[in-house]
Automatic annotation (TrEMBL):
<dbReference type="Pfam" id="PF05907">
    <property type="entry name" value="CXXC_Zn-b_euk"/>
</dbReference>
<protein>
    <submittedName>
        <fullName>Detected protein of confused Function</fullName>
    </submittedName>
</protein>
<dbReference type="InterPro" id="IPR008584">
    <property type="entry name" value="CXXC_Zn-binding_euk"/>
</dbReference>
<keyword id="KW-0479">Metal-binding</keyword>
<comment type="similarity">
    <text>Belongs to the UPF0587 family.</text>
</comment>
<dbReference type="GO" id="GO:0008270">
    <property type="term" value="F:zinc ion binding"/>
</dbReference>
<keyword id="KW-0862">Zinc</keyword>
Length: 110
C-alpha cells in the first residue's frame, strides 16, 4: 500500500494500454509491477440531500470500477456543486478541509 495520496477526477482520463477504452487512473504496483486501474462510472451516483445527511442514510455519490487496485480511503477535494436549503447555488466548492467554506456558512446563517 502506498502512503502517497493519489487523485482521481472524472474529467481526467487516460487510454488503457490494451483496447480502445479509457480509465481515470492507471498505477503500477511497486511489488508485482502490474497495472491497476480505477474508472469512475458517471451517472451512477446521486446528490446528497439534507434529509439523507441528517438521517445518516446511505447516499452513493460515485461508482468506481477498480481492477487490480483497491482504494482504502478517500478525501473530498474541490470542484463540488452545492445548493443551499434556500436555493443558492455554489460551484467549485472545496470540501478538502472537511467543512463547508465560510461563504456557505454565512448563507445558512441568514
Amino acid at each position: 500500500m502506498s502512503q502517497k495520496e493519489t487523485c482521481v477526477s472524472l474529467g481526467d482520463t487516460v487510454p488503457l494500454p490494451q483496447g480502445k477504452a479509457n480509465t481515470n487512473l492507471i498505477q503500477k504496483c511497486k511489488l508485482c509491477s502490474r497495472d491497476g486501474t480505477v474508472t469512475m462510472i458517471s451517472g451512477r451516483g446521486k446528490p446528497l440531500t439534507q434529509e439523507e445527511s441528517e438521517a445518516g442514510k446511505y447516499a452513493p455519490l460515485m461508482l468506481f470500477e477498480c481492477r487490480g487496485y483497491e482504494p482504502v480511503d478517500y478525501l473530498f477535494g474541490d470542484g463540488w456543486k452545492v445548493e443551499s436549503l434556500e436555493g443558492t447555488k455554489f460551484e467549485g466548492v472545496d470540501l478538502s478541509g472537511g467543512d463547508l467554506p465560510s461563504m456557505m456558512r454565512r448563507e445558512s446563517a441568514r
